[in-house]
Amino acid sequence: MGMRNKIFTILFAPLLATIVGFADSKKPIEIGILPYLDTKELIRLYQPLANNLKKEFDREFLIMSAKDYKAFVEMTANRSYDIIITDPHLGRLAELQDGYAPILRPKANCYVEAVVLEESSVFEVGGLKNKTIAAPHKLAQTTIIGKRILKEYNLNPHTDLRFINRLDHRNALLALSKGEADAAIVSSLALIHAKSAVPQKLRILPQTYDDKANKGEMPMIYMLSPNLDKELGKSIKISIEKFANNDPKGKEWIDKLKHEGVREPNLEELLLLDSYMDDLKEGLE
Amino acid sequence: MLHKSYIGYQFAVAAIIAQIAILIFFSYFGLQTLRTSLLNQAEENAQNLTILLSTSLAEHLARKDYANIKNLLALEIERNAIAYAVIEDSGGRVIIESSVNLNIDYLNPHKSLAEALQSKDDYFRTIAAIKLLDIEYGTIYFGIPIEYFKDAKEGLVTHYISVGLAVLLVSALVFLSIGMLFKKRLAYIADEIEQGKIKIRKDEFAHLGESFNALVSQYKSSQKELIAHKEQLEMLVRERTRELEESLQTIQEINETLEERVKDETKKRLKQQELLIQQSKMASMGEMIGIISHQWKQPLNIILISAGSALDLAEHGKLSTEEMKDAYDTIEESIKYLNHTITDFRNFFKPDKKRTNFSLSACEEDVSRLLKHRLKTNGIELIFENRDIDIYGVKNELEQAILNVINNAIDALIDNGTENRWIKLDSEIIEDKISIKISDNAGGIPQNIVNDIFKPYVSTKGDKGTGIGLYMSRLIIEESFGGKIRVENGDKGASFIIEIPKGVDSAQ
After folding, report:
1. What distance in Å separates the CA atoms of residue B472 and residue B478, rounded to the nearest whole number?
2. A66, A100 contact by CB (below 8 A)
3. Can you tell me whether residue B386 is helix, strand or coil?
4. For residues B341 and B326, what is the distance between their CA atoms, to the nearest angstrom?
5. CA–CA distance, B213 with B207 (Å, rounded to integer)
6. B90 and A60: CB-CB below 8 Å?
7. DSSP H helical segments within B316-353, as ranges?
8. Inter-chain residue contact B508 with A203, CB threshold 8 Å
9. A54 reaches B (C-beta below 8 A)
């Protein structure tokens, strides 16, 4: 390197770095949401959060998703998103394998519901023997828990019934609506947002909440990418917490999601998610 | 003779020159009109393509599904709708380029299609924001091939020139023939003049002129009529278009506000229901407080007496350990009873909305315990003729619905001064329904209000009743359990029949 080049580098390198840094600081922050509903519905549901963060941090926050659960897991592993809102077991995987940091979870729990059309002749979960059941993606927490519930009713998902996986909760309900399945397994919270896609009336099959497999799960988890600046991540967490728990507009948003607010997940809750890892690895293969 | 022939040619040449002038004039304006129409068409195509790309790519971009975007672009390139495309994400990072070595100045788009057409470029370089639900997810730079437009333009000129030349050739031949005929006629007249046979036939020219004038005036009048018809038609079309636009606008306005209005009405209705439920709960609470104060009187007296005797004995130094323990046991027993009463009361009123499986008999036992004192005081026997049936729903709510009906029966039994008073609860499963029948021997509900008994503010008790207890029971049964409640007057009294679907969660 010639003397002139050296002088050029010494003088302009910091300036260049500042320009690049500035450009990066203005890059939109991407909030990746697990595709548990269709993309437009997810944007409609989570846009109030993005709008508030944009107002607080004076930069763009974009609601993103993926074409399916597997693509979401892969993009999470590639650190494609700055913040993720995902199923807790997928969040735990991202924490253990890719260094994502869990920050918040909804205060509400969700349950797994088996749903049939109102005129169905099935009146209890035990009556699903030899029937076709539609569920969301095989990696979904709902699908994994759904299979566990069926086992508690002595129904083996491989031998006692036909299990079909659809992209998301909405598509599982659509399979039921179109007559492709006799029942659908969906999460109680997703059901609130997805049932409008089905023109027929639905009926939830009764099951006791004391079931070992259906004791109420953490519905989602908010996590920060290891690529996101730590201080910025901290401020974002505080901002989300304030918005969801104290701001009237945030409360309206949380009410719509039926999440009852947000709080930090505790270690015990995170450790409990390790029980899903085997099912998850099987699904990812 | 020579000059006669000259006139004929002169006429033909003049006619051909006039023809050429007319042809050039119409060709120029015709070409301009066609060019404008072609340009408009091309601009419309470009706009449609922009909208198509912007909307069809948006959802894929929000999903980061770049493989699908590439496929879509490849299809558009294959059908020659676009020549190239470059997509940037919202951060300005290039994420997709349709070809690896794109040697086009895509970052410098043309201002308009017209500008592109005037340039030597092969593509109309343009740009569009990729938006989903009004949120910008990126930008697409793409080029629309304009060769076809240039070809069409050139083809148009060639076409016009060839048609023009053909017309010119034909008309030259026609005019030459007319010129020749004209020359012959003139030569004939000149010959007649030379021979002194002058016959000026004014009438021939005058007749020709008159016929021509008549033809022109007829043509003008037809044209006027046509213009008048055209204007009338245009006016009608304008009027119909305006009417249609107004109707469309009205429909749009109705559509825009419909959802809001439905929401408002639903909100109002829910608020009204909540208010009624609250009123009903307050009324029930008032009754309950009355019951509790009765139920507490006796144990409180026992506590007072036991504590007083213990204190008395202590003051006289006669309080043995055994007597103190007796007093303590009595007081503890009474406090347990008080605690039990208040727990029942609290359980009944706690805002628990959790749906569970519960047994109907447990629900009826709770109601019976709450009303125990009122039933006993008024000498009413509560008879259960039940099958133990499992119900799925909010237990508290069913308890409240049954409690309201029984309270109504108790009031009727008291008001009517019935002897041997009883209230009977009977339940059974009929096909896929659970039927709960609550009947009494209070004489029945007056015929004039029996049809309105489940409406709000309708009461059999005059000023004493709130008129919302049975309305609330109906709300609970219909909305929370997806069932029905009805009343029938029998020989001895009224029967309220509650029917709820077996194993139904009616929260849908």
Report:
1. 10
2. no
3. coil
4. 23
5. 10
6. yes
7. 321-349
8. yes
9. no
Which of A201, A28, A146, A38 is closest to B89 using CA atoms? A28
Option in A28, A43, A67 nearest B65 (CB): A67
Please count the CA atoms within 13 angstroms of the CA of B144 that sit on its side-chain side. 26
Residue type, B234: E
In chain A, which residues have their Cβ closer than 8 Å to the Cβ of B65? Answer: 66-67, 71
A62–B356 CB contact, under 8 Å: no
Cβ burial, residue A282 (10 Å; 0-12/13-18/19+) = exposed
Confidence (pTM): 0.51
* Gap between the Cα atoms of B293 and B305, Å rounded: 18
Residues of B in contact with A39 (CB under 8 A): 59, 62-63, 132
A71/B432 CB distance under 8 A: no
Whether residues A123 and B502 touch (CB distance < 8 A) is answered with: yes
Residues A23, A119: Cα–Cα separation, whole Å = 58
What one-letter code names the amino acid at A214?
A: N
* DSSP β-ladder status, B422-430 and A61-64: unpaired
| One-letter identity of residue B201 | R
Mutating which of B55, B56, B57, B63 best tests the A interface, going by the most A Cβ atoms within 10 A?
Answer: B63
ipTM reported for the complex, 2 dp: 0.80
Cα–Cα dist A207/B333, whole Å: 39
Give the pairing of strands A29-33 and A61-64: parallel
**Interface with A, mutate which of B60, B61, B64, B89 (most A CBs under 10 A):** B64
DSSP labels for A116-166? Answer: EETT-S--SGGGGTT-EEEES-TTSHHHHHHHHHHHHTT--TTTTSEEEE-
Query: Using CB atoms, which residue from A66, A123, A202 is nearest to B63?
Result: A66
Smallest Cα distance from B131 to chain A, Å:
12
Please judge whether A205 and B503 are an interchain contact, meaning their C-beta atoms are less than 8 angstroms apart.
yes
CA distance B504 to chain A (A): 7
Closest C-alpha among B47, B60, B49 to residue B132: B60
Total count of residues recorded for chain A: 285
CA A37/CA B430 separation, integer angstroms = 40
Q: Which of A47, A62, A124 sits opposite B137 (nearest CB)?
A: A62
For every one of its 508 residues, what pLDDT tens digit does chain B have, with 9 covering 90 and above? 445 556 667 777 787 788 788 877 777 777 778 777 777 777 787 788 888 888 788 989 999 998 888 888 888 888 888 888 999 988 888 888 887 666 777 788 888 888 888 888 888 888 989 988 889 999 999 888 887 777 776 777 777 778 778 877 887 788 778 877 877 776 776 677 667 665 555 555 466 557 556 766 776 776 788 788 778 777 877 787 777 677 667 766 766 666 676 677 777 767 776 676 666 666 666 666 666 676 677 678 778 877 887 887 787 777 777 778 778 877 887 787 777 667 666 666 665 667 788 888 888 888 888 788 788 878 898 888 876 788 888 888 888 889 889 988 998 888 888 888 999 998 888 878 889 999 999 988 888 888 888 887 766 665 555 567 788 888 888 888 889 999 999 888 999 999 998 764 433 3
Find the CB nearest A206 among B133, B137, B392. B392
Contact B362/B384 with Cβ under 8 angstroms? no
Looking at chain A, which residue has its C-alpha nearest residue B506? A203
